[in-house]
Amino acid sequence: MARILIIDDEKAIRSALRDILEYEGYQVEEASDGEQGLESVKQNDYDVVLCDIKMPKIEGLDLLLKAGEMGKSAQFIMISAFGNVENAVEATKRGAFDFIQKPPDLNRLLVTVRNAIEKRALVSVTKVLQKKVYKLNEIVGESDSIKRVKDTCDRVGPTEARVMITGPNGSGKEMVAKRLHEKSNRAQMPLVEVNCAAIPSELIESELFGHEKGAFTSAIKQRIGKFEQADGGTLFLDEIGDMSLSAQAKVLRALQESKITRVGGDKEIKVNVRVFAATNKDLKSEISEGRFREDLYHRLNVIPIHVPPLSSRPDDIPLLVEKFLNDIADEYGASTKTVLGDAMDYLKTLPWTGNVRELRNVVERLVIMCGEEITLDDVQMFASPVL
């Protein structure tokens, strides 16, 4: 049952609104002035607050602002006998869901309340999903090398600096890119990922910059590329060492001029994009072999971040195993299993050539194949499958 608070200094208004809303099945509470209303908002979790604008002690718009500063997710519907545009605009600026003039139209009031309740539910679901996403993208570890990675992300994230992320396959380079984006001023805008190794060289330019209809045989309609999709946000170029030289030249121009041109087009399109790049290759060797542009390397390598292989930080393995056990239990809707001490010690001795990705796969295999307590015999049997 939705919970609604009515804040109004007129008892007749409060009583009328309460009767209407309780008849519709809502749980309703009242406050007779702004100060009492603010205290109720502090102490309780409401779905909707119907709040008068002109009240003694604390006015409605100030109360709305204070509720927002407290992080309350209740949806505020402001009500006032002074139904001017200025009040409505100001209420919206301060985060109100809607503005209704007194005396309220019954049908509009009920529709607005229902919509506000739905929005509040969506906000709650979104917060839960954001926590889950953050949990999935969390960089786990307390080793010195991982602490340096996390500290660098936290320092560099809020800037506009480009970042080059290096490290072996499966070590967590994508997690670093996501943490950087989450810490940036662009966090509310998209993070667009491109795996340069997974796209054929003849298609990479179309993927990055888009194309116009008729640009080539299969271009039956216009396509927006990743640079445009990431406008205002962040573009993550994964495995950039596999990008063709032709595409590298265009990426360099885009970084230098903040402009791109679609394949088959001649119109320059301005883009505002922050770029992170990642590779498992030694780009200096690639440069000496003529496979990677040195000028592009220096454009991208403003802040280098190296993600160490898992084999170099065995003390992080118990933390990673615990995280994966919890994640997999949540995913399967099952209880969390336990890895016994000698089994964990054995996991720390393995080479982990596939790094964190391989460890995650092994933990999932153990969860599926073993009992509630995962023993040394279990790990020895399932951690190193026959290829």
TrEMBL record:
Residues 139-368 form the Sigma-54 factor interaction domain. The modification 4-aspartylphosphate is found at residue 52. InterPro entries: AAA+_ATPase, AAA_lid_NorR, CheY-like_superfamily, P-loop_NTPase, Sig_transdc_resp-reg_receiver, Sigma_54_int, Sigma_54_int_dom_ATP-bd_2. Keywords: ATP-binding, DNA-binding, Nucleotide-binding, Phosphoprotein, Transcription, Transcription regulation, Two-component regulatory system. CDD domains: AAA. GO terms for molecular function: ATP binding; DNA binding. One of its GO terms (biological process) is regulation of DNA-templated transcription. Residues 3-117 form the Response regulatory domain. This is DNA-binding transcriptional response regulator, NtrC family, contains REC, AAA-type ATPase, and a Fis-type DNA-binding domains. Pfam families: AAA_lid_14, Response_reg, Sigma54_activat. Signal peptide: none annotated. SMART domains: AAA, REC.
